[in-house]
Each structure stands twice: as structure tokens, then as C-alpha cells.
């Protein structure tokens, strides 16, 4: 294999493993064996390890010298901490963005929301799984609301927190089963942001990420003490 072809192969493997984790094929807390994954995806062990290390950087996979790789667990404590920190960082970036964003920022935000609103969240074949296309449009929209903040470091931290929330976001969709008006929540954030109402936009953003946490936390409480019922069981101490 040429050196030029290696990155694209690693990228494809990374995307496939990420989709398997977010889609529930590999459940929270499950051990990931690089040798078996390399055979499944018909790639080298080095390619799998590179992909797993990248997923580890996104907090979707945990790596330890003793136990190797495993899907990150879904826990109430981690979700509460993540939601709290996201609220602090993301609303700070959003507020600054509304205060400092120029016309170009506003135009990019309009385009990002239009793309998100026009992208189906799921497919007819797999309605229980968030589509990768919607996932990308979703992340792009939220980053667009904050991109006018004027601080590359703040935006980088906010983007990293959004990545950390991916696993919880996907499990929230599975638990909710389509009852939540996600599009309406995004529209409400968008309208308050373009109206330059920082207080309202931040409040709606907090409600949005808080709703995701509420759904997952309620499901974890329902599954407490059960074995093999879902991520709540998978994240229990071994």
C-alpha cells in the first residue's frame, strides 16, 4: 500500500468504527479487540489502532495499558459533569458570538441551519440510528452559532465538548424514539441567535443540551440493576 493511500484507509476505518459505536453495534463499555476488528474490516492492525486512538481522542473509546481498548461507558456522573461544563463553555462562546459576530457569520449560520433543517435525521432503513450526514450537519450548526466568538481556543474547546457528547446524543435518540421535537429546538436556538437575543439563545441552548441529558439519565435510572439491557448495564463496574 502506498503512503498516499494509507490515510484514506485509516479514515474509512475510523468512520466505520465510529458509526458502529454510535449506531450501537459496539455498546458502551464493550471491549474492542484490534485483531478481530482488523479481520472484520479487512485492514491491518496498525490501521485499526490508529483509528481507535483517534476515537479515544474524541472520548468515544477508552484506552488503557492493562485492558486495551473499550467503548466509552455511558454513566450518569459523566453525563452530568459533561452537561454542566458544556453549559458553561458553549453559552460563553454563543454569547460572545452574538455580541461580536458580523454579517458573514450570520450568513454562515443561516446556511448551516438551512443544511441541518434539510438533512433527514435518520433513514427509512435504520430509523433508530442518527445518520452520519445529519450528525455532521448538527455539529456544524452548533459550531456556527459559536463561530463568531472571536476566540479560536474557546471554539476549539466547545467543539471538543460537542464531540464528547456524541455517544450520549445517539443514545438519547434511541431512548426517545422520536417523541422529541429536535428540529424545533434547533429552530428556536437559531431564531434567538439571529435576533441577537443572547439571553434567550443561551437559555434555549441550555434547555436543548439539558433535554438530551434528561432523556439518557431517565433511561439509566430505569435500567439500574438490570443486566445487558443497554448502556446503563454496560457501564456498570466490572
List keywords for this structure.
disordered C terminus, 2 domains, three-stranded antiparallel β-sheet, Arc Repressor Mutant, subunit A, 11 helices, single chain, mainly alpha, 238 residues, disordered N terminus, 68% helix, Four Helix Bundle (Hemerythrin (Met), subunit A)
What would your notes on this structure say?
This protein has 11 helices and 3 strands. The chain has helices at 5-22, 34-41, 45-57, 76-100, 103-117, 132-146, 152-164, 166-176, 182-194, 198-223, 231-234; strands spanning 31-32, 61-64, 68-71. It has a 3-stranded antiparallel sheet with strand order 1-3-2. It is globular and about 50 Å long. The N and C termini lie far apart (40 Å).
**What distance separates the N and C termini?**
40 Å
Helix content: 55-70%
Instruction: Let me know the number of strands.
Output: 3
Task: Return the CATH architecture of the largest domain.
Answer: Up-down Bundle
Oligomer: single chain
Beta-strand percent range: under 5%
Structural class of the secondary structure composition? Answer: mainly alpha
Shape: globular
How many helix segments? 11
CATH topology of the largest domain: Four Helix Bundle (Hemerythrin (Met), subunit A)
Main sheet record: 3 strands, antiparallel
Mean model confidence by pLDDT: 89
Q: Tally the structural domains.
A: 2
| Rg value | 19 Å
Assign the CATH superfamily of the largest domain.
GntR ligand-binding domain-like
Low-confidence stretches: 1-6, 232-238
Amino acid at each position: 500500500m502506498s503512503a498516499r493511500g494509507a490515510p484514506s484507509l485509516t479514515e474509512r476505518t475510523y468512520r466505520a468504527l465510529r458509526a458502529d459505536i454510535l449506531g450501537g453495534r459496539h455498546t458502551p463499555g464493550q471491549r474492542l479487540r484490534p485483531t478481530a476488528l482488523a479481520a472484520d474490516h479487512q485492514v491491518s492492525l496498525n490501521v485499526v489502532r490508529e483509528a481507535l486512538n483517534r476515537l479515544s481522542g474524541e472520548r468515544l473509546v477508552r484506552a488503557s495499558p492493562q485492558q486495551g481498548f473499550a467503548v466509552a461507558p455511558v454513566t450518569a456522573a459523566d453525563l452530568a459533569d459533561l452537561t454542566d461544563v458544556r453549559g458553561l463553555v458553549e453559552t460563553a462562546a454563543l454569547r460572545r458570538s452574538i455580541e461580536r459576530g458580523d454579517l458573514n457569520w450570520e450568513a454562515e449560520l443561516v446556511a448551516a441551519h438551512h443544511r441541518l433543517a434539510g438533512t433527514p435525521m435518520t433513514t427509512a432503513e435504520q430509523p433508530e440510528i442518527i445518520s452520519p450526514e445529519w450528525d455532521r450537519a448538527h455539529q456544524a450548526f452548533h459550531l456556527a452559532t459559536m463561530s463568531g466568538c472571536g476566540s479560536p481556543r474557546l471554539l476549539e474547546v466547545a467543539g471538543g465538548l460537542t464531540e464528547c457528547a456524541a455517544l450520549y446524543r445517539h443514545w438519547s435518540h434511541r431512548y426517545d424514539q422520536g417523541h422529541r421535537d429536535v428540529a424545533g429546538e434547533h429552530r428556536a436556538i437559531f431564531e434567538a441567535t439571529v435576533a441577537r437575543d443572547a439571553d434567550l439563545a443561551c437559555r434555549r441552548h441550555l434547555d436543548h443540551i439539558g433535554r438530551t441529558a434528561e432523556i439518557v439519565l431517565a433511561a439509566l435510572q430505569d435500567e439500574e440493576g438490570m443486566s445487558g439491557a443497554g448502556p446503563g448495564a454496560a457501564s456498570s463496574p466490572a
